[in-house]
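User: Please predict structures.

Assistant: First:
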Amino acid sequence: MSSPFDLHGRTAAVTGGGRGLGLGISRALLEAGADVIIFGRNPNAAQLDSRAQELGRQVHFVKLDLADSEAIAAVAQQVLSTHRVDILVNNAGTQDRYPALDFPLQAWDQVLNINLRAVFQLCQLFARPMLERGEGKIVNLASLLSFQGGMTVPAYAASKGAVAQLTKALCNEWAAGGVNVNAVAPGYMDTDMNTALLADPARMEQLTVRIPAGRWGQPQDIGDVVVFLASKAAAYVHGQVLAVDGGWMAR
């Protein structure tokens, strides 16, 4: 009897899948049996390529700037003309830190374009053939700042709050068509995006003490949950924003 978490025969597209959380997600999908297409500005993940060969899976790297809506449309058309994409993971994101009074509008637009507009555009493009087939999985990356406001990251907080609501809105329209749309909200993760926090011992201590699990998350923690949401095991999971945070939200 096959496992409900088995993704053999499936193809997943992952934005920003070659580094940080995206690398953990891509690796987990490969190990669950899926082939993976990685979208990114600098798709360079040699370790994924070697792991895919070990597993007998395929990994493809496609260069894409998520700030360019025309490039998104062109790349999506190209990929969908040659691949059946069963799983879309909108992982890539960006962040800028300024006090709200000084936050440049250009930086605001950049964050919202990548973290929200590109996510919606990719959902539109990849959901269409999913709905025509009557099945598909979309997993968006939300954040703890989908629930909380944060400090000096108003654009990021706004974008991730919107990703959570977009996930629910798309669920309402697409669940009956066989497409599961859910989101993962990572807690404090040991990745490049948190370099400033990781380099501040006092702030690290303050944050870690508040996490019931007593540690920061690793990319694999998110990857395993994405595999669940992309699998048959989550067939009746729709419109959820699942916090993977070591218990932070429960504190």
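Second:
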Amino acid sequence: MTTFLLRRFAYTVLLVIVATSVAYVLAATQLNPRARYEGRNPPPPPEVVDAVLNDLNMNDRTPLAERYTRWAGGVVRGDLGRTVDNTSVDEEIGRRMWVSLRLVLLGALIGTTLGVAAGAFSAVKQHRPVDHFVTVFSFVVLSTPVVVIAVLYKNAGIALNDALGFTGDVKLLYTTGEITPGLEFWSREGLLDRAAHLVLPSFVLITTAIAFYGRYQRNAMLDVLGSDFLRTARAKGLSRSRALIKHGLRTALIPMATFFAYQFALLFVGATFTERIFGWHGMGEYFVDSIIKNDVNSVAAVTLFVAVLVLIAGFLADLAYALLDPRVRT
């Protein structure tokens, strides 16, 4: 078991190095930071532009291998470089990842739990009204763009605030930002305010997660309902509900462990529309803005961040596999 996990870990680390290197090369060759200085009146002297881009390690006239070596050396030392605005990429990542974590963690955990439960229950009640309801709900949500769902929730929050008379600065549900400016993070007012800001964007992630995991869990559960080991468990005296939970659901959860691990990692930069619409300045927004700004170092840093998350997710998925499937341990 230990050898298996170490081999998987080493393999994933190698993939992270390859993925981030390719991402840096693509960003450095396809993005054009020099375009930020074009069209200005009066135009800045070319030597000044070259000097600024050299300081940022984004000068397209410098050989790519030299730029990559400088960037990789900084990564090894824990320095991800500077943004096109000459701010620290490390500070931007450090600030925004906690914003995304607060947004993603609650929505992903609650949505996954409810989705797995809904999918399993729908499979057990196959072709009954509850199964039809879960199926229709999942198809409707999955076929609706996330941006539309986010706007619907935002408008619903505004309507609810108006209906309950919250028209001033204090509201029941907030539709913009992660906290009201001026409140302390750990104060009682600050925590309640953050919770009120978190409700609507979390509902967006919860709704999409229920639909996504509900469909996968239903199909996985249907595959094991007629299996021999469930009939054997019933023959040994286990009740139907206990056999379904202890043996059926546990087996059906094996593929879901991989889905959840990787989806949770990718949500850090995948909740772009939710962050944009509700004004949360997280990793998804940062990644899109970096591409628009031709910010090579920031794009490479976000790619590295996601690659490391995928590494951790894959390792945790292997651990979950080992816990759910005893065959993996041998």
